[in-house]
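Me: Here is a favour to ask of a fellow structure person. Could you put it straight underneath, so I can go through it closely?

Assistant:
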Amino acid sequence: MAIFLRFLLTSVRGHWIKSLLILACLLIEMGFNASISMSFKFLIDRAVIPQNMQVLWLILGILIGGVALVFCVGLGRDYLYAQVSTAVLNDLRQRLFTHLQRLSLDFHARTTVGEITARFATDLAAVEQALTSAASGVFLPALDVLSCLVLLFVLEWRLALVALLMFPFVFLGPELLDRRAASASYGRKQQEARVVTTVQQTFSAPAIVKAFGLERYMLLSFTEQLRALAQTSIQVGFLSALMERSSLIGFLLTYVLMTAGGAYMAIKGVLSIGAFMSCQALFLTMGWTLAFGMQYAPRLVQATGGMQRIIDLFNEVPLVTDLPEATLLPPLAGTIAFEDVTFGYRPNQLNLNGVSFTIQAGESVAIVGPSGAGKSTVLALLARFYDPLSGRISVDGRDVRHAPQAAWRAQIGLVSQDSFLFDTTIGENIRLGQLDAPAAALEAAAGLAGLHALLATLPEGYDTMVGEGGGQLSGGQRQRVALARALLRDPALLLLDEVTSALDPATEAAINATLAQVAKGRTVVTVTHRLASVMHADRILVLDEGRLVEQGQHAALLAHGGVYAHLWEKQSGFVVNEDSTSATVNTTRLRAIPMFTSMMDVLLQEIAVRFVTEHFPAERTVFEEGDPGDKFYLIVRGSARVTTTGPAGEVRELAVREDGDYFGEIALLRNVPRTATVRTRTPCLFLTLQRDQFQHLIETSPELQRVLEAETAARLNDSRLAEWADALGQKRG
């Protein structure tokens, strides 16, 4: 509870004039509350016992006047406190929002949107509820108790000492339970955040949930989280009630002692009846005030848990910061250089290792390589979302760390694979690239991005709403709006991250044509795994396992016969129609697959025509570990993740498969269960071959059967397959 009270006292310092006025109002209310208890002494000793009506009416008149005064003062205090508490909360919201904006991408990579949303929803709501009632729940009761205690000493110091006994009893229980209650409240806030995250994730993709019948699965997951939330809520509620009841017991015990002592003194004539009644009233006021304050304790406990989570967020430190001596970079004119750059998102796992290269201003450079090679990491470092662990990135000879982040990024236009759009109009989404851009510049950027054809079909043109995440537009349309947004700032450096990876061939070709047009006169760095889209780049950088292994132009790299040539060969040999409804594979590509290498062309042709086109959306399970192995898969377009389950039930990622890769080959050779799980990362287009068709085909060729038996043995001894089999065996054992 101390955390919240410390925040409260610190926050009101910025509103000291209004805070002093609120304090003055509280003192007036405190004085009136104390005067009611003290009035018993004068009413009984000066009016009732001597039967003095004049004094009676005088005292009653003063009390009635006090009621009117306190009513007006209370209204003024409530209004002022509403202003101060609202200002404090808005200041906290703004500080929280600003701090989140300052944090580097590493924080957002490990924190869900639901977690962040919960800080503003449940955590701040608990703080707000406690803050708005703090004046009447904390400050006024504290002043009332203090004034009553002082007046008790004035009336009868011995009874005042008895009253002091109340405080250890009243506060002992809350003191003992405070930490447990605050810890339980913090746990409940964590559970609430998980519930918010589940809701956010479920309803951010309703089409996926409905398409794959996940309603029951999501409901069961949500129910389990609600059960955990209920357990922590019961614990918080019980501890809060226990704090309140322990205080009440202490008060009641002390009240009995107080009454007995006061009555004895009144009987002996040491204390007047009026003074005895005033002491009783003062003590009851203290007890009622403390009891009322203890009713505020549950709010305080909840606010403490929420405040701790907010403090945890404020304690997050951005990894990328501006140096005090940072100065502006001039517009890019010469070169961008990676100089022996090493970087890893995790300390024990490097994503780039000693990478060095230069990019000339105006050059079009493509970065390619197998999945996990470090391609997107290069873009993240170029945009200075992260800083290298060692080495440096320089622009025209100056380390980018010596320039303000915002100034460097003002020279960059970024278009990524997800092409996120805000839930506003097309025009406003484009304008976010340069908020002060005139309408003519906005229209010019839209023209460069090829948006005029789209806008011509929309009745509201630039004022058309795109929907949440751009859901009202197609993938290609979203990419064009995102490209226009990047072009609006007329960037010296254009970064393109897998821009066409999720598009159909026709849309991809159109977007690539647009990119080729807008790239003229700019420095362009493109990251992609689809080599056909970058074969005309001025230079291609090939990464493999975090190292730069090759660089050059398309023809030279093919002639070199290295990593790039292998990737090109793997992605060749497929024909996809314009709307991606069907695909075919030629015999040359099939022959590059080891188990098909020894087959005759006639047989390969027979196999090629038996492949069937299948579509899988993103985040869809293709098959699970243990499923029957009945089909072979060739990835024509897309990306899929291969995982297995470890001995402790943990999911381990074994590999990522992309364009031209294949999996499930053992299913054609042996009737064995799947040894791993495959799940799509992006929308995927597969060519699949059923095992029964393949087996029927090879039964006609005894020689082919012997070749395949040998190939089967070789494949089953493959180290990667052995790892999958070992993992599956450990789990089952």
Q: What stands out?
A: The chain has four domains: 2-314, 320-411+491-556, 418-490, 575-732. The first strand starts at residue 335 and ends at 343.
